[in-house]
Amino acid sequence: MPLLEVHDLKTHYKTDSGRVKAADGVSFTLDTGQSIGIAGESGCGKTTVVMSLMRLVDHRDIVGGRIVLDGQSILEMPEKEFRHLRWSKISLVSQAAMGALNPVFTIGWQIVEAIREHTDLSKKDAYDLARTMLERVGVDPARINSYPHELSGGMRQRAMIAMALCLDPKIVIADEMTTALDVVTQVQILKLFQHLQETLDISVIAISHEIPILGQICENIMVMYGGKIMEIGPTHLIFSEPLHPYTQALLRSQIDIHKAETKQLRGIRGRPPNLLNPPPGCRFAPRCRRAEEICSQQESPLIQLAPDRWAACHLVK
Amino acid sequence: MNENNNGNNNNDTIFEAVNVSKTFKLKKRSRGLGRHRFVKAVDDISFKVKAGETFGIVGESGCGKTTTARMIMQLEKVTSGQMLLRDIDMTKLGRKQIKNMRRRVQMIFQDPYTSLNSVKTIKYLVSEPLKIHKVYDNKNEMMDKVRQMLEEVGLPSSDDILAKRPDALSGGERQRVGIAKALVLDPEFVVADEPVSMLDASVRAGIINLLLRLKEMKNLTYVFITHEFDVAYAICDRIAIMYAGSIVELASADEIIHNPLHPYTKLLLEAVPPLIPDKNWGNSILEGEVAYYIQVPEGCKFQQRCRECKDECKSGVKELVEKSPGHFVACDAC
Question: Residue A247 in 3-state DSSP?
Fold first, then answer.
């Protein structure tokens, strides 16, 4: 049995003008020790999916689907019960630059708060644990009483990682973990994360709008567009033989400085779909260069093409 | 540091920065950082921008690249040095003259979400520069220009879009409005400060292509500021690498990417994630963060992080030296 099973998840946000179908029928599984990256551009629903996993969206907005975490179906669970799972089974590393840390408390205080919220540890034990965790992520434990503004961007991100790992969770979600960091710091954080993945036996769900970053830390990649999954497959195959036209377009718009000829960049024309009233058929069809008649009429289901490859496209056989 | 000996014909130099420095005074409460009350954000940099080229400035946060952009625009006063636009020193201009200068020098801003006033319509935003500079007496002519500009940046010019406000547009469309606003006065020199860093890759590629197309069409010259090497490579003809307020290397984009000399440039290049995943990528980059110097060390500023640091790096001022034609580097060890 997989560690995490997401089946036909539908998160439709209620707004004044109707329901925004931010995640619309998302299904995937994650086994122990596996890592999956969700790639896609702003508004594709990748953050909505993980926020639904953490149950951090309004439960009334999750209008359908099932999430089974370690054998327990979590969507029907009362909030009180889920609080015991959140952070101890599934935790989140968010983008530290975006104010994820509270500026008026020390990082130690914030890590200890997370520990004590979900366990019965005493304050002293919690502080000891926080120190150990900081040391493990490469922050001098003496900095435990520093405020976020006293730390560099890289150290703040390390503190966020320490906070996510302090309760030994089975699944860690990394949401744009290295966005807004300097390039050199980004490498260091990714390397640290790779190391922790290998040593701690955690499963990882990573999100990034930069697909090369996901390539570095994930075995599998899931490409989303307009609230739907377009393609799932092993990382090296997604990069070398992308099947879905959207994945292909996404990779074509990447700049590869090691190849002179890729100075010719190709963007994707048009704009992302309106998720209030998404177009019929494939969501990518209006922008797809290869779209045929059927694409704008009928949506293709996610078809299994190889043991571990799926794509939702009529044109892929 | 000088780049004056690179044998350029002065006629095709549109802009020149000569020994420009910027020192910020620290606020009282920040002085706990040490007894030094000033921070040198930009430390004696010089460069020339040739007409028709895209001159890139690449560096990490805090290296002084945005301060340089703001000084070119006269949004920030230089502490010392000259900013020559076709031999006119912009730093000596009065307020009225600066206003006139801005018809020729314009800026594209980083964040299309906050740099456009969200309560104004697209019509207002794009026509505002024309009104400020009283370019047209006739309102119809002005609106024709606004529509033409919107089409040139790849937006529809219908009344529908003119009446919209920025929040009704996507990030890419907003940045196109930002570009239209900057180019509507037909400037010859444009400073673009991280214009694509907030955009998704597919949108980013479209904006880069647009900037390249507009450059050809309108004979523009760009100074392009970015922290992303790949973006710089896609758009720039020449690239200057900045570290802690100084230019450490300056060469053509191809030279910088394929034959980097300065250890810092090499480090930045190694940090670019490869498109084909590689588990060994980045193994050599383990420590070190950008230095924010209140007190500048003697010698090379990069010495604490440098893998090739030698004794001679720890003293003297490191000036840009031409190692091969057009390739300047400020490093003794390489």
Answer: helix
What confidence tens digit (pLDDT) does each residue in B230-241 have? 899 999 999 999
Mutate to test the interface with A, among B27, B235, B275, B286 (most CBs of A within 10 A): B275
Q: Touching check for A206 and chain B: CB below 8 Å?
A: no
Q: Which strand (E) or helix (H) includes residue B125?
A: helix B122-132
* pTM, two decimal places: 0.88
Record the tokens describing residue A278, joined without a space: 């998404």
Nearest to A183 by CA among B293, B266, B227: B227
Pick from A215, A253, A256: which is nearest to B202 by CB? A253
Average pLDDT value for residue range B280-292: 69
What's the average model confidence in pLDDT over B76-87?
94
Domains and CATH numbers, chain A: 1-80+173-178+202-278 (3.40.50.300)
**Interacting residues of B255 by C-beta distance below 8 A, sequence separation 6+:** B324, B326, B327
Residues B301 and B293: beta-carbon distance below 8 Å:
yes
Check B254 against A152: CB less than 8 A apart. Answer: no
Number of neighbours of residue A81 by Cβ within 10 angstroms: 11
Q: Which residues contact A157 (CB under 8 A, 6 or more apart)?
A: A93, A96, A97, A177, A178, A181, A185, A189
User: ipTM, 2 decimals?
Assistant: 0.84
Q: How far is CA B308 from the centre of its chain?
A: 28
Task: Give me the pLDDT at residue A95, please.
Answer: 80
pLDDT of residue B321: 93
| Conformational region of residue A43, where left means phi above 0, alpha means psi within -120 to 50, and beta covers everything else | left
Q: Which residue has the tokens 């010089």?
A: B46
Q: How many CA atoms lie within 13 A of A249 on its CB side?
A: 26
Nearest CA in chain A to B209: A265
Helix boundaries (H) for chain A:
46-53, 79-85, 107-118, 123-136, 153-165, 183-200, 211-217, 235-240, 245-252
| pLDDT for A258 | 72
- Say yes or no for a CB contact (<8 Å) between A212 and B275: yes
According to DSSP, the residues that pair with A7 across neighbouring strands are A66
Residues B18 and B41: their CA atoms lie apart, in Å, by 16
Contacts (Cβ under 8 Å, ≥6 apart) of A4: A29, A30, A53, A67, A68, A69, A70, A90, A171, A203
Residue type, A308: D
Strand order in the sheet with A35-39: A90-93, A171-175, A203-208, A35-39, A220-225, A228-234, A309-311, A303-306
For residue B234, what are the contacts with CB-CB under 8 A and spacing of at least 6?
A255, A263, A265, B208
Is residue A291 within 8 A of residue A281, CB to CB? The reply is: no
Element (H, E) at B322: strand B321-324
- CA A110 to CA A88: how far, in whole Å? 16
Is the confidence at residue A69, as pLDDT, over 90? yes
Contact assessment for residue B236 and residue B224, using Cβ atoms and an 8 Å cutoff: yes
For B252-283, how does the pLDDT look when each residue is reduced to its tens digit (9 = 90+)? Answer: 999 999 999 999 999 999 888 888 888 888 88
Distance from CA of A160 to the nearest CA of B (A): 18
Q: Is A173 or B198 the better-scoring residue by pLDDT?
A: A173
Task: Assess contact for B326 and B6: CB atoms under 8 A.
Answer: yes
* Strands annotated E in A31-117: 35-39, 62-69, 72-73, 90-93
Residue B3 has pLDDT above 60, yes or no: no
Structure-token match 């919209």, residue found = B164
